[in-house]
Amino acid sequence: MIRSLSCRTEAKLLAHAFQGYAAVRPLTLEDHAILSAAAVGLPLEARARLAAEDKLEAEILLGNPERIEKLIREEDAGMARERIEYLYRTAPARSRKNLEALQEMYEGHCHLCGWEPVRLYEQALCQGHHLHWVSRGGEDGIENMVLLCPSHHVAVHRCNAPFDYGELAFFFANHREPLQYNAHLPRSA
Ligand SMILES: [Zn+2]
Ligand SMILES: [Zn+2]
Q: In this structure, which ligand is nearest to the CA of 144?
């Protein structure tokens, strides 16, 4: 079905053709018709609406189950029941553990700009960020997390910057910013 779409790629393997930000291409009306026909009869996606990722992520990292559940309920995020339970029962403890591991591993540096608050102020001021947003189904494993200084963290969320695992970089509207620290991340082929 994907091969029948008009968007073309130089990639030899189909699996490589649709990875990463660089692979994003516009769809034609014909493509739209092909995809619409293929979607008939598929079950409805339970995560169609999105919770506010910055708020949800902060609550998960602070580890307060009641506030996570309240936020999801208030935002009417349209998530499946199992996902909601996972987010407030399992994700907080795992995310916090991973955040501590990252702070230790990188001595608290911002993975983008290298700011080092632990050395400068003896304070772990960088924050955990989920590369694949948890409100969009992202996992809470360490390979989905980076440390960002507060400024970079806000910039990534405000700009809705996608992350490319091939280049290990965030893509903003007019430039890309590669991670300076990335040893814990897998590289896509
Ligand atoms: Zn930074
Ligand atoms: Zn974040």
A: 2
